[in-house]
Amino acid sequence: MSKKMKILLVDDEREFLESISERVRMKGFEPVLAQSGAEALEIAASEKIDAAVVDLKMPGMDGLETIEALKKMIPGLHTVLLTGFGNEKVKMATEALDSGYFDKGEMDSFWDYLKSLGRKLERTMAAAGMAAGGDTDDAYAIEHENGKNAKKAGDKTPPPGGRTD
Q1: Which of 72, 85, 91, 152 is in the most buried spot, having the most CB atoms within 10 Å?
Q2: Which H or E run includes 7?
Q3: pLDDT by residue (tens digit) across 61-110?
C-alpha cells in the first residue's frame, strides 16, 4: 500500500487495544485508537479513517451503536465488530449493519479479513480517481455498487469470517 490506510480501533480494554494496534501497524495500516464509542465518533469527525474495528461490550455506547453511528457519519465505511461475547443474534445484527463480524477467538480469520480489506480499500481509492474530483464519498458509493453487482453476478467471495452458512 502506498499510503497507509487508517484503521480506527475501538475497545475499552487498553491492553488488547495496544496489542491489536501493534499488529495492525505490522500489517501496514495506521492504527488510530479510541477507548469508547463516543471517543471513536470524535475521532471520526476530525480525522479521515478508512475502516473501523469495534468491540461489542463497552461502557456507554456499545459496539453495534458505535458502528451504526460511524456509518451514518461516513457512508460506505468498512466496519468490523470484534467481540469475545458474540452470539447468533449479535452476528445477525452486525450483518444487518453491513459490517463484518469476528469472535476474538477467531483471530486468524480476522487477520485474513484485514488483509483482504487492505485490497478493498485500495480499490476504493482507485475508484476515487473515477469519482468527481477524487471525492472519497463518491468512491465509497462506486465501490459499494461494484460490490453489489459482483454479488449479483455470482461472486463466490466468502463473507467476513469465511462463513458461507
Answers
A1: 91
A2: strand 6-10
A3: 999 999 999 999 999 899 999 988 878 889 899 889 989 898 888 888 88
CB 54 within 8 A of CB 67: yes
Q: Is the pLDDT of residue 164 over 60?
A: no
SS3 135: coil
Cα 112 vs. chain centroid, distance in angstroms? Answer: 13
Q: Could you tell me the pTM of the whole model?
A: 0.72
42-47, long-range: CB < 8 A, 24+ apart: 43/8, 44/8, 44/70, 44/73, 44/74, 45/73, 47/6
First-to-last CA distance in the chain? 32
Q: Starting at the earlier edge strand, list the strands of the sheet with 51-54.
A: 30-34, 6-10, 51-54, 78-83, 100-103
Question: What's domain 6-157's architecture?
Answer: 3-Layer(aba) Sandwich (3.40)
The one-letter amino acid code at 87 reads: N
Compute CA 45 distance to the chain's CA centroid, rounded to the nearest angstrom.
16
